[in-house]
Design brief:
Chain A has 22 helices and six strands. By secondary structure, chain A is mainly alpha-helical. Chain A is elongated and about 90 Å long.
Amino acid sequence: MAEHNVTLEITLKLLLDEKKYSTLKDILVTMNPANIAGVFEEIEPEKTPLLFRLLPKELAAETFVEMQPELQEHLIKGFSDSELREVVQELYIDDAADLVEEMPANVVKRILAQADPQMRKEINEILRYPENSAGSIMTTEYVSLRPQMTVDEAIKRIRRTGIDKETIYTCYVTEGRKLLGFVTVKDLLLTNEDESLIEDIMDKNVICVNTMEDQESVAHKLSKYNFLALPVVDNDNRMVGIITFDDAMDVLEDEVTEDIELMAGMMPSEKTYLRSNVFDVFKQRIPWLMLLMVSATFTGMIITGFEDALAATVVLTAFIPMLMDTGGNSGSQASVTIIRAISLGELEFSDLPKVIWKEIRTAALCGSALSLACFAKLMLVDRIIFHNSSVTLSVAAVVCATMVLTVVVAKIIGCSLPMVAKRIGFDPAVMASPFITTIVDAVSLLVYFLIAQAILI
Amino acid sequence: MAEHNVTLEITLKLLLDEKKYSTLKDILVTMNPANIAGVFEEIEPEKTPLLFRLLPKELAAETFVEMQPELQEHLIKGFSDSELREVVQELYIDDAADLVEEMPANVVKRILAQADPQMRKEINEILRYPENSAGSIMTTEYVSLRPQMTVDEAIKRIRRTGIDKETIYTCYVTEGRKLLGFVTVKDLLLTNEDESLIEDIMDKNVICVNTMEDQESVAHKLSKYNFLALPVVDNDNRMVGIITFDDAMDVLEDEVTEDIELMAGMMPSEKTYLRSNVFDVFKQRIPWLMLLMVSATFTGMIITGFEDALAATVVLTAFIPMLMDTGGNSGSQASVTIIRAISLGELEFSDLPKVIWKEIRTAALCGSALSLACFAKLMLVDRIIFHNSSVTLSVAAVVCATMVLTVVVAKIIGCSLPMVAKRIGFDPAVMASPFITTIVDAVSLLVYFLIAQAILI
């Protein structure tokens, strides 16, 4: 597939160099908008306006939506007002709103000037909603039906008004903008009674979302119920728009990327990896690295504090990496599991005691297994095979006891922090591996030296 | 929303205790299958068959599909053959295949006995495909049209045969099972020429997937092109089924959970957190903990190897946690970024040099910023404020030089290993934080002591 695209790209580039525009057009119209946009990203920017003008109006708009913001901006700057108008008029409202959000102010001004007043009003309505809310990703173009219509009238209405709607397959039954129910085109087509009233065949059990609901929760809801689209209502329960499955899928992918970035101690970025320059990547990564470096110096202070204990038994130093890593890994296993369960809507704050109890028992099992293995290794490998006399039974006892305690503490911290973060309104993903590793490091060293002092000194 | 559900659950439980079956039925039929399944999971298992029998046939099957496997098994064991038959006959083929895959052998035997021969054949066909392949998640029920049909005939065919199809909105045009193109119901409804031939209005640029293609790649493709469904073809290019957006969304969620689990050093699990018992969680977590603990002992051996250097300048020990953590964090930032980019299809193995070059420059920036901050802290805080005379200029130089080198090495290892893993056929997510932390720990300590030996001793 990838190779096939590459060959096609080369062909298209050659045709463009040779100015074979009619052949180019013949090829482009057979292609999918997402793939055409891919070709645009690869050719020299100064040739893109030329190529774009070859596309028929509708395909041009569909391709435009699939492009990266930089290229969109470049193209708009080359458009005449009437060219811009043609593209803008073809856009769905939600795509137009996305575009307005991403372009610099002077470009936005030109875009809004080319939209008709109704469209401008609807774009502005969507832009009023806070980022990441249902309102900000909805489209205001949906098919609405009246309860007293017959099936036949409803189908006629869809055929008449459907062309500009993002989806016609789920139609919403409203009266004075109040949402009463929905019918699918499948219901309409498969019913054998064309004279039935919509209110008699509609599904009155509507799952809807509020304009202010978080986009991730909307996407999970859509996925849970397997709906093509979810209606969005305002606080007075009036229908204002819909969110379609394709936008929900994009939200899921973006939110997951954001969660994963946060979990690995990075600031979320809007740009993909290859499109970010080195300085973008640096800005994304340095804040957490800096913060975590500073916190790790406290761990260093613990070591300094117990310098006497260390000087007495230097062998203890050799086990620091193992204890720190095992603690860190145990903690991140717990935190990542909990963060994912929260984001899938499986866990609420009220589950905290249940979660802690499960983690304690798991930690007891893991800790015991690890410390048994560790004890066997110390006794058999270090003492018997390598004759390392400094690994005494007491040292082994200190290491193994620390291991169990560290795992238990790590799992408790790992599972609680994300739930607490969620409770007080932070993104739980922030409380992931790097952060928890730092805390667990300090705790495990403290436990280690305290036990060492008690047993060895 | 959640609270609302809880109240409803209590009401339903009370009604069930009081044997108010007709009221219960009235309530259940207004509800969504996913929500009814949620109620079933909460009530005592012995009462579920009773409640299930209240549901009308179609709703019963839809609810059954949404249940967890344990409950499905429990219900099937209580079904008479004719009850089981009613449910099985109502299932879509892909759901029936999922069910057969998840039930124990004796239950499978009963299920297949109740499916009619055609269904049994189709279930078996789906089960032939390897796990996680497109073939294994497709459904064989789709609307197919002939190229010579008129729009009017096509709509009639959809109305006649659509009832059993998972989606009617995208129809596939085939001839002798060869896939020629597709038309959407939107195209059919919005065209004004009922006598047009399907072959004239169909879209011939079909994006399709092979039966053996990985399910994750299929899901990303569907999301990229915003399709409701993708057709699945065999090696001879004959159409064998479709994959719908709702199944693709489930795949995306599952694959992401699996990636996240692998990244945190856990074996992927099919069960959700709350449904796993402590021993499940233990089995999921202990293998990596054990492996990583063993590898961390090598890091310990490095410390032991440099015991003399350490004994000479004990102050070096205090910086071990900071250097190890910063290295680990830098490495996991790089690895997690790359793993995500690979899974989104942004990076190929051939991008490796480009990626390494970008990571080296980023690491140089991050490393310099971190070591400047660290140097300032050592000189100002440790020396001037705390008068810690053991933090000499040479010690600071050793720590800061190690910092830069560690970050660079960590970023290079972090970005290369996932790409190499992918290349040799492993899941890149395995090469994430815990694994890379362990390698980077060892490398950073080695660098640390070598530099220390060169400068200090």
